[in-house]
Amino acid sequence: MKTIDFYTGKEFYAQDYLGAHIGGGGVTFRTFAPAADSIKLLLNGEASPMHKVEDGNFWEAHVPGAGAGDRYEYRIHHAGSCQDHADPYGFAMELRPAHRSIVADLSYTWHDGEWMGSRGDTHDKPMNIYELHLGSWRKRSGDQPSDDPADWYRYDELAQPLVDYCLEAGYNYVEFMPLNEHPFDGSWGYQPTGFFAPTSRYGTPQQLMMLVDALHQAGIGCILDVVPVHFATDPYGLANYDGTALFEYPNDAVGVSEWGSHNFMYSRGESCSFMQSSANFWLGAYHFDGLRMDAISRIIYWQGDQARGVNGNAVDFMRRMNGGMKSLNPGCFLVAEDSTDMPGTTKPASEGGLGFDYKWDMGWMHDTLDLFQTDPYFRSGNYHKLSFSMMYFANERYLLPLSHDENVHGKATVAQKMWGDYELKFPQARALYLYMMVHPGKKLNFMGSEIAQLREWDEKREQDWFMLRYPIHDAFYRYCKELNHTYLDHPALWDQDYEDAGFQWRQVDDTEHVVYAMERRSRGGERLLCVLNLANCPQEDYKLEVPDLGTVCTLLDTDWARFGGSTPDGDEDVRVDTHAGRLTLTLPPLSGILLQL
Questions:
Q1: Helix (H, G, I), strand (E, B) or coil at 40
Q2: CB neighbour class for 82 (10 Å; exposed up to 12, middle 13-18, buried from 19)
């Protein structure tokens, strides 16, 4: 590591020097603590003095005979007081409530060379992302609430079940909610303490590598949710690390987030080098294909408030980090959870953008769910909730998220959000997901939504898999599987996501009947037409002008009986007048149909 790069925020491999490194018959420990008066290494409870190295801002100790599995922390003295801290660059940590760092050997033999060698631009590829919280996807205790560590499965134990499930259900990417070490289960990892340490809740670093490796060998990509904005306030963590505000702002007005955590101060090159080394580490050491970065609005604006202005140092950091990671990790991609309308989120960093590949379309998510929660009687007046997203879609490369945030905190699950009583929620949810799959942009769906889970997500319980014993939920899962595979198998639904030629409205003015029609096209000439009837009454003999009609066949009908609808399977109810370029359809209430033209 070059100290000049570290200080100027240009270092992407700070963990190769800092932290605990096995070699020379023992372990060498190094930490950056410029304001410390003295530091003692506490290794398995035994204290050893550390000495200054480099320019005097770094501290080092070599312990012969130490090795992988040893527990350690740093006792940092400053201005007459001391505090024990976990290693900011530590590769593993103890299970909460313990918090010491653990010396870790990260050696692993990977078997995903074919996947890693073939990674490339995903803009014209299908991306159907399954977002999950690893500790509550499956639990040994089932659906009984539990925070007992014995009820968590290990990373490697979940590898084959997750591979099998994704292949069956039609997901080709998995997005893991944060796997960095964190003290509080209920933070879901969004208040981290270990930026280089995978949480020990689910096992060891090698066991996480085994999980990623297994997914890659099955052709499934892996995305990790990371937190570049803030960190937990626990005293053993980064807070006041050397007795001063080393990583955070010294002023609470900008230094404390709305969640009570500390904001990184990106006017310091050392903080920039720390965070970009962490992000680069997950992509390199663990072979993650992409990173989803949380709360980017708090990077762009001070405290996420546009009225307070752009945080120029943080924005410059993000450009530099994203550009560097793309250069260092061929084929990786970066996703922003950005709720602002600041332009350029997905513009290359070299051209003045933030350098992300995709941006979550929060507007699409809110507008779509608003419409489906609205009584159909009032949908005519809210008709353009579904069309508005295409007015701005070309501004960025968007990803359509129905994430964990839409299934917690009293918001109800996606299926439960649908208007009406129990029986009416299912046809609307089927129509919602068809609309999502046909709309341009990559897709993300949160675990449990594919079985129409009606209980809000709780990290203490696994998903309500028992619901599949109920025919209507089993039929909904069958529908989601078929829809997902239809998406993956048909290039018209993805290979021109961000090209004007890939999408065209065929009906976007029928406020009276609340009917929409949209056509998707592939470069190879495939044409698919989706027609949605979101009114609570059927549309008989509905006529739709579609130029250049040829043979028309039904790929999927949300109302088919096998999905829980009333239309006999295979009964297309489509009459086609090809000479006049007109389709005549019968559309059941709250339904959608996908046609191949």
A1: strand
A2: middle
CA dihedral 278, 279, 285, 286 (to 10 degrees): 120
Q: Are 114 and 107 in contact (CB under 8 A)?
A: no
Sequence-distant (≥ 6) Cβ neighbours of residue 187 within 8 angstroms: 232
- Residue in the block written with tokens 């690390």: 241
Query: What distance in Å separates the CA atoms of residue 331 and residue 125, rounded to the nearest whole number?
Result: 13
Residues 128 and 487: their CA atoms lie apart, in Å, by 8
SS3 string of 407-420? Answer: HCCCCCCHHHHCCC
Section 269-275 average pLDDT = 97
Q: Residue 338: helix, strand or coil by DSSP? A: coil
Rounded Cα distance between 109 and 115, Å, is: 15
- For 75-106, write each residue's pLDDT tens digit: 999 999 999 999 999 999 999 999 999 999 99
Strand partners, 85: 74
Nearest CA to 154 out of 90, 107, 222, 204 is that of 204
Q: Please report the pLDDT score of residue 254 as a whole number.
A: 87
pLDDT exceeds cutoff 90 at 401: yes
Q: Where does residue 387 rank: exposed (0-12), middle (13-18), buried (19+ CB within 10 A)?
A: middle
Task: Of 493, 502, 499, give the one whose Cα is nearest residue 436.
Answer: 493
Strands, sheet with 19-23, edge to edge from the N-terminal-most edge strand:
19-23, 26-32, 58-64, 51-53
Please, what is the end-to-end C-alpha distance for the chain in angstroms?
58
Count of H helices and E strands in the chain? 14, 29
Residues identified as active-site: 294, 337
Nearest to 190 by CA among 115, 133, 255, 274: 133
- And the tokens for 83? 């505090």
- pLDDT at site 258: 87
Burial letters for 55-73: b for 16+ Cβ neighbours within 10 Å, e otherwise?
eebbbbbbbeebebebbbb
Q: How far is CA 441 from CA 110, 141, 371, 393, in A?
A: 32, 37, 19, 9
Q: Give SS3 for 504.
A: strand
Judged against a pLDDT cut of 80, whether residue 298 lies above it is answered with yes
User: What percent of the chain is modeled with pLDDT above 70?
Assistant: 98
What confidence tens digit (pLDDT) does each residue in 170-190 have? 999 999 999 999 999 999 999
d(CA 211, CA 198): 12
- Alpha-carbon distance of 426 to 293, in angstroms, equals 32
Q: How many residues does the chain have?
A: 597
| Distances 300 to 191, 318, 399 between C-alpha atoms, Å | 19, 9, 19
Q: Which long-range contacts (CB under 8 A, 24 or more apart) does 78-85 make?
A: 78/35, 78/36, 78/37, 78/242, 78/243, 78/244, 79/37, 79/243, 81/243, 83/235, 83/236, 83/240, 83/243, 84/42, 84/236, 85/235, 85/236, 85/237, 85/241
